[in-house]
Amino acid sequence: MPRPVRFSAPEARARGGGDVAALLRHPTLANAVDRALAEQRPQIADLALPVSAAQEIALRVIPMEPPLADGGRLVILLSDRTRERAVERMRADFVANASHELRTPLASLIGFIETLRGPAEDDPAARSRFLAIMAEQSERMRRLIDDLLGLSRIELNEHQPPTGAARLAEIAGAEAAALEPLLRRRRVTLAQSLDEAAVAAPADAEQLAQVVRNLLENAVRHGREGGTVQLSVARVEGGGRLPARPGVLVAVSDDGPGIPREHIPRLTERFYRVDRGRSRSAGGTGLGLAIVKHIVNRHRGLLLIESEEGSGASFRVWLPAATEG
Ligand SMILES: Nc1ncnc2c1ncn2[C@@H]1O[C@H](COP(=O)(O)OP(=O)(O)OP(=O)(O)O)[C@@H](O)[C@H]1O
Ligand SMILES: [Mg+2]
Question: Is the pLDDT of residue 2 over 70?
Fold first, then answer.
């Protein structure tokens, strides 16, 4: 039965490939229309349109009883849900990734517990070796859970700008000092250049300390064993790749293997690691830079990553500076 279309939004015409009548013949939509007419009740359904970039449409067919003055009997509402669906998929991926990351150390713990109760029961040497691995795996799970909780806390307040000011030289100095044991373990020399006049505002000092910590840890852990890491904090006037207003620049660079160009845009994705095996053995969960990015976004700052494969990586964070007076 032909169903003339009385009115249609220009948007719907554009989305339907220019032909609303053809859209009405889509089996899902046609079905919903039939049901709405037969049952005289609103119908809802989901529809995927195979146009150039696939679109996911939520549709709602509403019967009009009595019919509209011009004879119209149905109103069809099409809403583009492509973005929401992408967000839903991202969430599902995230949960799957997080569970997978937790399952790996958990499986190893369960395995060792079984071994310790059975075959290794009377083997003190094996027992102490296994306990060391178990301690390491539980530490890994603890770190992962801390990072996940931290990330969700930061995401919750990402749209609420920080208040207060952050004296970055002080913060960076304290983080560098706290890193001493890791520096010694990796035989890394840390060169610091900290300008006391570098004060970010509005800023959350605790979050910025985490930014410095995550970047420093990466440079030491993913950089070269026995290498040198440069940490600098400075006031900058802006311009070039930086916003054209006074700011503060925190830079961390190393002389390690660097990062292949194609990976750079994806580094701030959760759980993204260039070399999964290597990062995991370095104790990484792949959340550090995701946390950095969220904090920088909250501060309306900028994260710049540069790397030449084979000759180190440089991470710079620009933040708005406190205005004097
Ligand atoms: N300075 C660096 N040099 C080389 N690769 C790096 C450097 N910093 C980060 N990367 C790469 O980027 C990836 C993501 O870093 P990120 O800090 O998000 O995770 P991680 O260090 O693996 O784990 P986490 O920080 O959660 O403990 C790392 O796994 C590593 O492959
Ligand atoms: Mg890291």
Answer: no
Instruction: Return the number of other C-beta atoms located less than 10 Å from residue 147's C-beta.
Output: 21
Q: Cis (ω within 30 of 0) for the bond into 50?
A: no
Ligand 2 midpoint to CA 133 (Å): 21
Task: Please state, rounded to an integer, the average pLDDT across all residues of the chain.
Answer: 89
Tokens of 269: 């994705």
Please give the model's pTM, rounded to 2 decimal places: 0.78
Q: Which ligand places an atom closest to the C-alpha of 312?
A: 1
For residue 218, which atom of ligand 1 is closest to its CA? 8
Counting DSSP H helices and E strands in the chain, the numbers are: 10, 10
pLDDT recorded at residue 22: 72
Residue found by looking up tokens 């290498």 in the block: 227
Q: What is the pLDDT of residues 279-325, one digit of tens each?
A: 666 667 899 999 999 999 999 999 999 998 899 999 999 999 987 64
- State mean pLDDT over 178-187: 96
For a substitution probing ligand 1, which of 253, 279, 287 has the most ligand atoms within 8 Å of its CB? 279
Q: How far is the CA of 14 from the centre of ligand 1 (A)?
A: 44
Closest CA to 172 of 143, 202, 196: 196
Question: Is ligand 1 within 6 A of the CB of residue 213?
Answer: no
Whole-angstrom Cα distance, residue 96 to residue 168? 37
Paired with 302 in beta bridges are 318
Cα–Cα distance for residue pair 223/256, rounded to 1 Å: 4
Whether residue 51 has pLDDT greater than 70? no
Which numbered ligand comes closest to the C-alpha of 313?
A: 1
Residue 110 has pLDDT above 90, yes or no: yes
